[in-house]
Amino acid sequence: MNSYRLLFIFSLLFLTASASAQLKEQQRPDVEPPVSFYLGGAYTARSLGGVTLLAGVAYQRHDLQLSYTLGLQKSDPVYWYDDDGIWLSSMKYRQQTFAVRYGYRLPAGQRFIITPQLGYSYHTLSGQQDEGEGRYGHSAHSSSLTLGMRVQCRLLPPVSVFLTPEYALALSQDTYYKHTADVSNFSASGFALTAGLTFDF
Questions:
Q1: Which is deepest, 17, 29, 125, 126, by most CB within 10 Å?
Q2: Is the distance from CB of 52 to CB of 195 less than 8 angstroms?
Q3: pLDDT digits over 41-82, tens only?
Q4: What's the rounded Cα separation, in Å, for the pair 115 and 69?
């Protein structure tokens, strides 16, 4: 997790410096419409990361975002045993995540918008059986509270690039999720970094 922490800190420093430079511009920023919608695609780097699709609506400076992340990375193998210690199955997992986030947009010059975000995520595991019988841990689930900061840079009027460092704090885990996470290489808590494009309309 140290690499995620360093990446998080570096991203904040780099993007804050860029936004500060934009604040020095003396030109008047464009007037924003009171309501706007956006769609986007991104990649989320985290344990069991994957491709993210998102949609949102902004009213004045208030921002409500929904997202779905399809996990592409597989977990380390997880071995399941019965109460007598007899081996039953070997499984690997991908993770799907549904999330909702509320943010407040802070314009930083003409091109940048910084949006602190508070959110809720629901994670579900999809298990793939390697050996044995029984898909133990398949559909296990957890939830987490997220705190992040989306930094958006407009390339053209409808198109923006964005980067969102985020930290997730686990709220709940069912028994199968907790066991699987404890013996594998992922967790409901931790840092994530999402980068991608949005299209306003």
A1: 125
A2: no
A3: 999 999 899 999 999 999 999 999 999 999 999 999 999 998
A4: 20
Burial category of 169 from C-beta neighbours within 10 Å (exposed 0-12, middle 13-18, buried 19 and up): exposed
Cβ within 8 Å of residue 114, ≥6 positions away = 15, 19, 105, 106, 108, 149, 150, 151, 152
Listed in order, strand segments (DSSP E) in 105-158 are 106-108, 112-132, 141-156
How far apart CA 135 and CA 101 sit, in angstroms, is 32
Contacts of 125 (CB under 8 A, 6+ apart): 93, 94, 95, 137, 138, 139, 140, 141, 176, 177, 180
